[in-house]
Every structure is written in C-alpha cells, then in structure tokens.
Task: structure prediction
Amino acid sequence: MRTSLTVLALLAATPLLAQSTPGLPGQQDASRVTAGTYTADAGHSLIGWEVDHFGFNPYFGIFGDVAGTLTIDPKNLSAAKVDVTIPVSKVVTASAGLTAHLTRAGKDGGKPDFFGPGATDARFVSTSVMAKGNEAQIMGNLTLNGITKPVTIDAEFVGAGANPMNKKLTVGFEGDTTIKRSDFGIMGALPVVSDEVELDITIAFEKN
Result:
C-alpha cells in the first residue's frame, strides 16, 4: 500500500522487515492476534500529514502521542472497533516558524489560519470495517476543528507478537486516507497550499 512520507517509510522499515525476517518479535501472522481490547502505544504511533506546497514540492509534518483503543476478534473482524485521538496542538514540523504559524491565534480576534492555540484533539471513531486478508477498509467519523465528517481509511495489518520490552501482546497497523481540510474549516493559504491532505498512519496497539 502507498506510503508517501519518506520519514514514515523509514519509521515503518522495522515492522515491515518483520514480515520476512524470522526471529523478530512481530510477524505478519494473524494467528498471533487474540480477541480483546488493546490500547494504543503512544510512543510508537504516528500520523503523518502531507500537503502540496505552492505546486513546488510536497511538505509534511507529524502528529505523535496518538491515544485510543482497538477492540478486535480475529473470528469476527467486521465487528472490530477503533477509537483514536490525535493531539493536534502537538503538531511537529521541521520549521519552527511553520509550527508556530499552525498553532497561533487569528489576527485581530479572527479565526486562526490553521489549528490555533490550544487546539482540541482530533478524534476518529470507526463505524464499520470491511476486512479481506491482511487489508481492511475502516469507515468512520473524523472530528477535527469541531467539525465531524465521514472518512475511510485503507489499512493493513503489519505484525503481531509479544513486545520484548514490556511483554505485552502487540498488534501493529499502517493505513492511509485523504481529506480536504476545507471540509473542517481549516482555510489558511488556500489554494496555494493544497486543500487535499494525505494522512499516513502507523499505530501499535498493546493488549490490556
């Protein structure tokens, strides 16, 4: 599946190797997944975003500290539930100036160009899952900037196994989707910075 962000490709290298490297803790083996509720491993879960910058080049940033839960039964994958929150106020980019712009207040009391200060966490809550093999479409509602819209995520099971550091059973997934930021009232620099935002998702869940 598509992984458009170079940084996320590097971060994903280790779990992807697990698919073909015997002896690594995580393997792309669905028989390792047991039914139950899992909690996102915030330290190893990221959501990258990418926009087109003036038609010159793609530019991307990252949301870390992703929190949330996954409830899954390998015998009934269509009943799986995902509920994830994304701390928008902690957005990270390679430019201190841009990061400050993304989180600053609007001029003269107006709306901020992007997220503004103290932005409320975004939240994705699944409504249905269509699974086939190691891939799935996860339909749900994304709430961002106080606005809720339906979003579909193309997801892939990466690996499962016991984390050697804390011994917790862990399952990992990657996914992608595209949203229009104008749908969520984020209008800064349109149209020279693209309305379409590609989201690349990598999340590890640990069993409770």
Summary: Residues 6-17 form the longest helix (12 residues). DSSP finds two helices and ten strands in the chain.
